[in-house]
Automatic annotation (TrEMBL), chain A:
Naturally occurring in which organism (per UniProt): Camelina sativa
UniProt subcellular location: Endoplasmic reticulum membrane; Golgi apparatus
Family: Belongs to the small GTPase superfamily. Arf family. Belongs to the SRP receptor beta subunit family.
CDD domains to which the protein is assigned, alphabetical: SR_beta
Listed transmembrane segments: 30-50
Membrane topology type: Single-pass membrane protein
InterPro entries: P-loop_NTPase, Small_GTPase_ARF, SRP_receptor_beta_su
Protein name, entry field: Signal recognition particle receptor subunit beta
Keywords: Endoplasmic reticulum, ER-Golgi transport, Golgi apparatus, GTP-binding, Lipoprotein, Membrane, Myristate, Nucleotide-binding, Protein transport, Receptor, Transmembrane, Transmembrane helix, Transport
TrEMBL record, chain B:
Top-rank taxon: Eukaryota
Residues spanning the membrane: none
Keyword Electron transport assigned: no
Ranges of compositional bias, category Basic and acidic residues: 155-173, 184-193, 259-273, 320-329
Ranges of biased composition (kind: Acidic residues): 308-319
Region of interest (Disordered), ranges: 141-329
InterPro entries linked to this entry: AAA+_ATPase, Longin-like_dom_sf, P-loop_NTPase, Sig_recog_particle_rcpt_asu_N, Signal_recog_particl_SRP54_hlx, SRP/SRP_N, SRP54_GTPase_dom, SRP54_N_sf
Family according to the record: Belongs to the GTP-binding SRP family.
Organism: Camelina sativa
SUPFAM superfamilies, per the entry: Domain of the SRP/SRP receptor G-proteins, P-loop containing nucleoside triphosphate hydrolases, SNARE-like
Protein name in UniProt: Signal recognition particle receptor subunit alpha
Membrane-topology annotation of the record: Peripheral membrane protein
């Protein structure tokens, strides 16, 4: 108790001294100092706010085996090296796209993230979604029909994710492996996806009171689902990771990550 | 021969494959390995078997956790290659020196790999040869040492170790007998020379007296061939008045190690080895002797070959006790230090205590012991060699890794959206059939009613099938539920064949347009062969869309047994090529366990199928989905 008393007295003395000191400073200087401090904090906050809207992260997502890792390395190095196996961890990199290496001038590097598509690693996607400026959803055009349910569920989960809806993240439906003869066309894939998502809409919206799996629902009530109903822009493109025809993907990325 | 050796990053890019062995692998073993083993937290296992049409491979792997690399070797299962583990670790070492995150092509590694492979193969060859020759050689050598030692200690019961080894050895009797002859002669030489040479370690000099006594016996029992060793031992034991002991220990197994009485290194046999090798030239004149005396000693061999090696375990234990203690002391301080600097590479010894504590914690939460063990091994495999980031303790790294692993296991591998499946079936105009299986008393009928209620709420027309024709009151129970829920029930009373009842129920459902048929079966123990056969018949005959295993959350270690046996029986007794296994789990009585939620983890891990529903009460509304994050949090609390 004595200690407390002593300490209190000492503290009071110090505070008195401090106040005297402050009062000694001529008032204009004091006000100027405070104003400067306030300005500085406001400036820092605004920078942070502005920076958030200009993220340069592009996500590569899609089912396991659709060719995301190959696409990632193609975009980065121009070649897919010796092939890829099922990814166990995300591949991340901040770089200038390979084809732009030859361009002169200031090009802003892109932060590309390849998220594993295996269902066990689905939670990794949620870490990256809030920061994404654009999403490339890779679909295997060769093995499309056998996996259509899983693909459409994945896409549905992405499109109804809270951050995606809020930020209106544009999505590119990239049909990969189009160099093979039996690959489906992008129109076919788009139509099938719309049909499947329509079915999903009906079953998912009938949600039990115990939990809500999806944050939002898609589309307009009463109308058959169409990609134009989404608030965020959804476009379709074709690509081939193996042969290197990835122009449409590159354009998309460049479009949404302004240099 | 090795089929293929791959090096790839955890992110999936292949860095290097062996181009010499140009065989293309049939099927996709690597992808299957990653999907069904490494991502399923079974990376602690030793190897993985992969079957594809036309090939049966075994895969072995190792990680370099610091650099994030995986090394996988594939070879044919019928060849039991011994050098694979060795080769993998050597490759890991040399590749990590060459590795550069910027580089994508490592063609110069081909040369290094070829050398390493030749080295490993050569070493394996040597080892194999040594094993074949080594047993007789070391055996006789030990015998020599033993004889002498016996003299030293007096009363040494270390008998017949070499002899017993001979017993289990490969029957290369001819070669062996040669060597033994050599040894015997060697022995005689040594002993005859009055132990003045003293080459053999451990004071041969002292044993001159005993040796003299034994020598006569030795002459008689010399070089038996395979069984020969025993003879000397016998002489030894007689000499040492340990005949009683010898007789008294007939039943001991022959694979024990040498007992070491004094502080002499147990390497004495190693030293003896060189001597016997020298004397191989003296085979000639003793061979004749060896031949005829081989058989008679055979039975005697039995008597005391047992003996031996009581042990050396004594020696091991005091040694091992000290190590953990001092490791602990070093542990606390260095862990504090390392947590600040964060530079240490995680070793098995560092991870050991943290993992052990985690395993204990999991087991207090009712996770089966075997599962907890496997999980810890898998986490250990994924953390070993990794660098600690700064300001993190080892225990927090381990905890984070374990949490990650648990989330990964509990996240379903496929979609568990039943409504979607029901709609898909509806389009094809056939009913969606769900069969509830499980052991006795877990709550199948109750939860069947809950599922029916839930489906009804989603505008799906349900029909129940009472295929529990064994338990009294089962049909009435279902009838009551059906009446309350106002849904049709198909029943045929008791003492009927459940498979046939189910079949007819499905036909009835197709006829009156029900969307879902819920089939209730009788509870059965996983060991009960006839009942499991009946269940398998029901499933084969009706080919349901979903086989739901109902398990209670109160079960402990038995969960592992139940699920694995159910799956095994279903796959064994299945008639078609594609056996139907358990597709999903329904966890019941979840409200009775407070936070001991481990049963969910055990069941999911052992069967690989997701938990589709959780029953948490006795009324119709008490059915919910599994909340993965909540369970993981509770498990690690």
């Amino acid at each position: 108790m004595d200690n407390w008393e002593d300490m209190k007295i000492v503290a009071e003395q110090w505070s008195k001294q401090g106040i005297e000191f402050v009062q000694q400073i001529p008032s204009p200087q004091l006000y100027a100092a405070i104003a400067l401090l306030l300005l500085a904090t406001i400036w820092l906050f605004s920078i942070r706010l502005f920076r958030r809207t200009k993220s340069n992260t592009v996500l590569l997502s899609g089912l396991s085996g659709s060719g995301k890792t190959m696409l990632f390395y193609r975009l980065r190095d121009g070649s897919s090296h010796q092939g890829a196996v099922t990814s166990m961890e995300p591949n991340e990199g901040t770089f200038v796209l390979h084809y732009e290496n030859i361009k002169k001038g200031k090009v802003k590097p892109v932060h590309l993230v390849d998220v594993p598509g295996h269902s066990r690693l689905r939670s990794k996607l949620e870490e990256y979604l809030p920061r994404a400026a654009a999403i490339v959803f890779v679909v295997d055009a060769l093995e499309f029909l056998p996996n259509i349910r899983a693909v459409s569920e994945y896409l549905y989960d992405i499109l109804t994710n809270a951050s995606v809806v809020k930020n209106k993240t544009p999505v590119l439906l990239c049909c990969n492996k189009t160099d093979k003869i039996t690959a489906h066309t992008k129109e076919f894939i788009r139509k099938q996806m719309e049909k499947e998502i329509e079915k999903l809409r009906c079953s998912r919206s009938a949600v039990s009171t115990a939990d809500i799996t999806n944050d939002f629902t898609l589309g307009i009530e009463g109308e058959v689902f169409n990609f134009s109903h989404c608030h965020n822009k959804v476009t379709v493109a074709e690509a081939s990771g193996l042969t290197g025809e990835i122009d449409q993907v590159q354009d998309f990325i460049r479009e949404h990550v302004k240099p | 021969m090795l089929e293929q050796l791959l090096i790839f990053t955890r992110g999936g890019l292949i860095l290097w494959t062996c181009k010499e062995i140009g065989n293309a692998l049939k099927g996709s073993p690597i992808d299957t390995l990653i999907r069904s083993c490494l991502l399923e937290e079974r990376s602690g296992a030793v190897s993985f078997n992969y079957d594809a049409p036309g090939a049966a491979y075994t895969l072995k792997w190792t990680f370099h956790n610091d650099l994030g690399l995986v090394f996988v070797a594939v070879y044919q299962r019928i060849l039991h290659l011994l050098y694979v583990d060795d080769l993998l670790s050597m490759v890991k070492q040399s590749f990590s020196e060459v590795y550069d995150p910027k580089r994508m092509a490592y063609d110069d590694f081909d040369e290094t790999f070829r050398q390493l492979r030749m080295e490993a193969e050569a070493r394996a060859e040597e080892l194999r040869k040594i094993k074949q020759l080594g047993k007789p050689v070391t055996g006789s050598v030990k015998k020599q040492g033993q004889v002498l030692k016996a003299g030293l200690e007096g009363g040494n019961k270390r008998v017949g170790e070499g002899g017993s080894k001979k017993d289990d050895g490969d029957g290369i009797k001819g070669k062996v007998s040669n060597l033994t002859n050599g040894h015997h002669s060697n022995e005689n030489h040594k002993l005859g020379d009055d132990s003045q040479e003293g080459d053999l370690a451990n004071g041969k000099e002292n044993t001159s007296s005993n040796v003299a006594v034994d020598l006569s016996k030795l002459q008689k029992l010399r070089s038996k061939g395979v069984r020969g060793r025993g003879g000397v031992r016998k002489a030894d034991s007689i000499g040492n008045k340990s005949s009683k002991v010898a007789a008294a220990e007939p039943a001991k197994k022959a694979t024990k190690k040498n007992r070491v009485w004094d502080d002499a290194a147990p390497k004495q046999s190693k030293l003896d080895f060189t001597d016997s090798v020298d004397e191989n030239g003296n085979n000639d004149h003793v061979e004749v002797v060896a031949a005829d005396q081989g058989e008679s000693m055979m039975d005697k061999e039995e008597v005391f070959s047992s003996d031996s090696e009581s042990d050396d375990d004594d020696d091991d234990e005091p040694g091992s006790d000290e190590k953990p203690a001092e490791a602990k002391k070093k542990g606390w301080f260095s862990s504090v230090f390392q947590s600040i600097t964060g530079k240490a590479n995680l070793e098995k010894t560092d991870l050991g205590p943290a993992l052990k504590a985690l395993k204990e914690r999991l087991m207090t939460k009712n996770v089966a012991e075997e599962i907890a063990e496997k999980l810890c091994e898998s986490v250990e495999a994924s953390l070993e060699g990794k660098k600690l980031s700064s300001f993190t303790r080892i225990s927090s790294t381990v905890q984070a890794a374990m949490e990650d692993a648990l989330v990964r296991i509990l996240t379903p591998r496929r979609s568990i959206d039943i409504l979607r499946d029901v709609h898909a079936s509806k389009e094809q105009r056939k009913p969606y059939v769900v069969v509830f299986v499980g052991v006795n008393g877990v709550g199948k009928s109750t939860n069947l009613a809950k599922v029916a209620y839930w489906l009804q709420q989603h505008k799906v027309s349900v029909m129940m099938a009472a295929c529990d024709t064994f338990r009294s009151g089962a049909v009435e129970q279902l009838r009551t539920h059906a009446r309350r829920l106002q849904i049709p029930i198909f029943e045929k009373g008791y003492e009927k064949d459940p498979a046939v009842v189910a079949k007819e129920a499905i036909q009835e459902a197709t006829r009156n347009g029900s969307d879902v048929v819920l089939v209730d079966t009788a509870g059965r123990m996983q060991d009960n062969e006839p009942l499991m056969r009946a269940l398998s018949k029901l499933i084969n005959l009706n080919q349901p869309d979903l086989v739901l295993f109902v398990g209670e959350a109160l079960v402990g270690n038995d969960a592992v047994d139940q699920l694995s046996k159910f799956n095994q029986k279903l796959s064994d007794l299945s008639t078609s090529g594609n056996p139907r296994l358990i597709d999903g789990i329904l966890l019941t009585k979840f409200d009775t366990i407070d936070d001991k939620v481990g049963a969910a983890l055990s069941m999911v891990y052992i069967s690989g199928s997701p938990v589709m529903f959780v029953g948490c009460g006795q009324s119709y509304t008490d059915l919910k989905k599994l909340n993965v994050k909540a369970i993981v949090k509770t498990l690690l609390k």
